[in-house]
Amino acid sequence: MLTKPALADEAILACLQAQYHLPVESLAFLPLGADLNTAVYRAVAPGGSAYFVKLRSGPFDETSVALPRHLYAQGAPAIIPPLPAQTGKLWAALGDFKLILYPYIEGRNGYEIRLSDRHWIEFGAALRRIHSLPIPAEIASQVQAETYPPAGRRSVRQALDRAEQDAGDDPLAQELVACLRTQRALILELVARAEQCAQALQAQPPESIVCHSDLHAGNVLIAADGTFYLVDWDNPILAAKERDLMFAGGGQFGAARTPQEEEALFYQGYGAAQINPIALAYYRCERIVQDIAIFCEQVFSVHGSEPDRQQALRYLASNFIPGGVIEIALKP
Question: What global pTM score does this model have?
Answer without folding.
Answer: 0.93
